[in-house]
């Protein structure tokens, strides 16, 4: 066998993120509306006869061994599917690492989808396999916009008329550890109020970006913004540059701003880059 696949792995942002509980196994349950965006990594996978999984990347500090979710995904697929193949993965990363954008999860999902397109082993059971890699991986398989519940594995696709909404993603501090942020969250004396998920659903279905921006919420901002005050400053900066609304994605430290006009979003991203920040223009998918 000698097959080559070229794959796209898109980032996500959280339009809402409520922490709803904690299970006995330590995993937190959530209620989160996740939105796929056009910011993406590209992967090339080569499948040949033999054995083993290898990985290369344009990012020199990216792990290339079993710490990498792409390698884990390939090994898991081969083991669960009782397959013996040699797989080489090249990841061209553009999504920032450890940024709350599911960069590793979406790459792993792309690997699973790519291998499934060749071997057709799991079918509708692929999301259950994906969950073994991480809570965001099932959503990354599905894409679009979904209400994600449980630990992220219960997905409800949502009606949306916001496709193409301009968004700027910016990051000006080092990555944050998601387990550490949840640990800090567990120590809060008074958790944040729930937020109104139904308002976000209505804004999505009506295509009203202003109402969407006004309704967004993220419980983890309660600790991440204290840990990294630069995140709050970046939110304010995006608003000053014309964003209709701005919020941290996931556990941070990336911040996104929603814009009404593509031209304004592109100008804002360019301005932030001139100031030495990592900033990206993207759109809702």
Structural description of this entry:
Helix content is 35%, strand content 31%. By secondary structure, the protein is of the alpha+beta class. The protein has two domains: 156 residues, Ribosomal Protein S5, domain 2 (2-Layer Sandwich), CATH 3.30.230; 118 residues, Alpha-Beta Plaits. The strands form two sheets. Strands 1, 2, 3, 4, 5, 6 and 8 form a seven-stranded mixed beta sheet that branches. A four-stranded antiparallel beta sheet has the order 9-10-7-11, with helices on both faces. The longest helix has 17 residues. The chain starts with a strand and ends with a strand. The model has no long low-confidence stretch (mean pLDDT 96).
What is the string of helix and strand elements? EEEHEHHHEEEHHHEHHEEHE
CATH topology of the largest domain: Ribosomal Protein S5, domain 2
Report the β-strand fraction as a percent range: 25-35%
* Helical content band: 25-40%
Any low-confidence stretches, pLDDT <50, length ≥5? none
Count of β-strands: 11
Sheet with the most strands?
A: 7 strands, mixed
Which class best fits the helix and strand makeup? alpha+beta
Radius of gyration: 19 Å
Q: Determine the N-to-C terminus distance.
A: 34 Å
The CATH class of the largest domain is identified as Alpha Beta
Count of alpha/pi helices: 10
Our count of domains comes out at 2
What gross morphology would you assign?
A: globular
The pLDDT mean sits at: 96
State the CATH architecture of the largest domain.
Answer: 2-Layer Sandwich
């Amino acid at each position: 066998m000698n097959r080559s696949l070229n794959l796209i792995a898109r980032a996500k942002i959280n339009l809402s993120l409520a922490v709803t509980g904690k299970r006995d196994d330590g995993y937190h349950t959530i209620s989160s509306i996740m939105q796929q965006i056009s910011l993406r990594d590209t992967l090339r996978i080569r499948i040949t006869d033999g054995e083993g999984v290898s990985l290369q990347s344009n990012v020199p500090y990216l792990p290339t061994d079993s710490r990498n979710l792409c390698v884990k995904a390939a090994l898991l697929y081969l083991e669960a599917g009782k397959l013996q193949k040699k797989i080489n993965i090249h990841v061209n990363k553009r999504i920032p690492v450890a940024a709350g954008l599911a960069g590793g999860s979406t790459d792993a999902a792309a690997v699973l989808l790519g291998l499934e397109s060749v071997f057709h082993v799991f079918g509708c059971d692929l999301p259950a396999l994906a969950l073994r890699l991480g809570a965001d991986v099932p959503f990354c398989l599905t894409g679009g916009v979904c209400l994600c519940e449980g630990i992220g594995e219960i997905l409800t696709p949502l009606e949306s008329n916001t496709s193409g909404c301009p968004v700027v993603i910016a990051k000006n501090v080092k990555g944050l550890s998601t387990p550490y942020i949840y640990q800090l969250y567990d120590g809060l004396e008074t958790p944040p109020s729930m937020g109104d998920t139904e308002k976000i659903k209505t804004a999505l279905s009506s295509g009203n970006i202003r109402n969407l921006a006004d309704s967004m919420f993220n419980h983890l901002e309660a600790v991440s913004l204290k840990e990294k005050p630069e995140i709050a400053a970046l939110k304010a900066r995006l608003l000053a540059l014309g964003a209709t609304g701005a919020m941290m994605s996931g556990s941070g430290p990336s911040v996104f701003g929603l814009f009404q006009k593509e031209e304004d979003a592109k100008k804002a991203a360019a301005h932030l880059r001139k100031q030495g920040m990592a900033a990206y223009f993207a759109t809702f998918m």
